[in-house]
């Protein structure tokens, strides 16, 4: 079975590389900016959905989007961390469902993408009291996160950046004690090799982490990192 899995990953990685070459942040931004109704988050999302029918895109798209919506509605998280903002599709899906006092911290390593993505969040009608874009790597953002959160903890973490970074970043979040006691984790692209390492880690601790739902290659994981279990863990 293993060579088949390795072959599948090889083909998947190749396809991702081809896709990455075709994706143009400037083009996505220009299309969304000119086609959507400014100030209306639903219109921005609908414009993204139209865009991805015709062009290569990293956006999670409507099917996984609805899955994410359901988690955000149910959890009503006050503090959300998104790793891998890209052009802001997932960020907008989250932001429009956050409670009034909720805040999204979103991280994007590519400076141009971070700038264009932030503009799209503003076009969708959100402001800097609702979100903050951190234009740096996930590792750097996590090391500075305590200052952004002060006494707060993360209720929801969405990982769709670099699957090789999923586990190191998750361990860093734990080490910095940035997760709330009952946090929820959304992982995208779980078929990629790096994400598999993360899944192996999570499934090896079923008393702490529960894989709840899956749609396509996106997973919801519930974490019980309360003080007692957390001490046991470290
Ligand atoms: C697949 S896209 C995210 C798509 C987004 N969820 C959406 O639906 O619009 C991944 C993004 O993560 C960014 N990225 C990759 N590695 C990163 C890292 N280590 N830290 C922060 N961002 C990263 C990439 O530049 C890219 O824009």
Task: Summarize the structure in words.
- The protein is α/β, with parallel strands linked by helices and 234 residues long.
- The protein starts with a helix and ends with a helix.
- It is built from ten helices and seven strands.
- Bound molecules: S-adenosylmethionine.
- S-adenosylmethionine is lined by residues 58-60, 83-84, 86-87, 89-90, 107-110, 113, 137-138, 160-162, 165.
- Belongs to the class I-like SAM-binding methyltransferase superfamily. Cation-dependent O-methyltransferase family.
- Keywords: Catecholamine metabolism, Membrane, Methyltransferase, Neurotransmitter degradation, S-adenosyl-L-methionine, Signal, Transferase, Transmembrane.
- Its EC number is 2.1.1.6.
- One of its GO terms (biological process) is developmental process.
Q: Number of helical runs?
A: 10
Estimated structural class: alpha/beta
Strand order of the largest sheet: 3-2-1-4-5-7-6
Number of strands: 7
What best-fitting shape do the alpha-carbon axes yield?
globular
Oligomer: single chain
Bound molecules: S-adenosylmethionine
Q: Could you tell me the strand content as a percent range?
A: 15-25%
- The count of domains is 1
CATH topology: Rossmann fold
Name of the level-1 CATH class:
Alpha Beta
What's the architecture, going by CATH?
3-Layer(aba) Sandwich
Question: In sequence order, what are the helices and strands, one letter per element?
Answer: HHHHEHEHEHEHEHEEH
Instruction: Provide the gyration radius in Å.
Output: 17 Å
Helix content: 40-55%
Ends distance: 34 Å
């Amino acid at each position: 079975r293993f060579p088949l899995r390795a072959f599948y990953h090889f083909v998947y990685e190749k396809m991702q590389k081809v896709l990455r070459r075709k994706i143009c942040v400037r083009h996505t931004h220009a299309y969304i900016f000119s086609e959507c109704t400014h100030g209306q988050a639903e219109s921005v999302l609908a414009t993204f959905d139209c865009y991805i029918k015709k062009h290569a895109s990293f956006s999670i798209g409507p099917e996984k989007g609805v899955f994410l919506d359901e988690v955000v509605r149910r959890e009503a998280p006050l503090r959300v961390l998104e790793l891998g903002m890209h052009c802001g599709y997932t960020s907008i899906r989250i932001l429009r469902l956050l409670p009034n006092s909720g805040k999204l911290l979103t991280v994007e390593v590519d400076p141009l993408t971070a700038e264009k993505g932030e503009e799209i969040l503003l076009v969708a009608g959100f402001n800097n009291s609702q979100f903050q874009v951190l234009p740096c790597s996930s590792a750097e953002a996590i090391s500075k996160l305590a200052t952004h959160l002060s006494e707060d903890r993360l209720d929801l973490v969405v990982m769709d950046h670099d699957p090789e970074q999923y586990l190191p970043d998750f361990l860093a979040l734990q080490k910095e004690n940035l997760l709330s006691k009952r946090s929820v984790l959304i992982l995208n692209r779980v078929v990629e090799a790096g994400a598999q390492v993360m899944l192996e880690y999570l499934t090896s601790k079923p008393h702490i982490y529960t894989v709840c739902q899956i749609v396509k290659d996106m997973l919801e994981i519930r974490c019980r990192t309360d003080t007692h279990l957390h001490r046991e863990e470290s």
